[in-house]
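Shift notes (night). Ran Phospholipase A and acyltransferase 4-like while the centrifuge was going.
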Amino acid sequence: MKIGDMIEINRGAFKHWALYIGNGKVIHLVTPDGSGVLRAFSSSSPSVSCKGMITIDTLKAVADGNPYKINNYLDDKYKPRRTDVIREDVDILKGRTITYDLLGRNCEHFVTFLRYGKSESKQADDFLKNVFIASGLLGGMVVVAAVASVAVAIIKVFK
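Came back to this:
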C-alpha cells in the first residue's frame, strides 16, 4: 500500500472510502454517527446532507473487520497527484468539518479529490443512474398505460 492509494471498504449495501497516508493510517470523511454514510437518508428525515468530519484513523479501525481493497479506479482517467501535494492537503484538511452530501460530497468524492484533484463518486453516479432508469421505466409504463386507455376510449366512441 502506498501513500495516496484509495481504499474501498465494503460495508454491505455501500462502500466507504478512505485514502492511505502511511504508517497504517488513512484519512476519510465521516458523518456525525461515524459511519461515513448518511443515516438520515434512510430515516424519516428528507435531508441527504449534514456536516462531515475529516478524520485520521488507522485502516484497521476504519475497516472494522469489513473487507477492503486498494481501488485507484480513476488512474486511467486522471493522473494521481504527487505525494507531497497530497500530504499538504491532508495537513490542511484533517480535523475540519465540511458539508457531507450523500450524492455530491461524500467520502468517495473526498478521496478522489485528494488523489486526483478531481471530485468524483462512481457509487453516487451509479445510484443516480439506477434512479433515473427506474423512473424512466416507470414513467414509460405510465405513458403506455395512458396511451392504451385513450385508445380504448377512442375505440368505444367510434363503435
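The radius of gyration is 21 Å. Strands lie at 6-10, 15-22, 25-30, 49-58, 68-70, 97-101.
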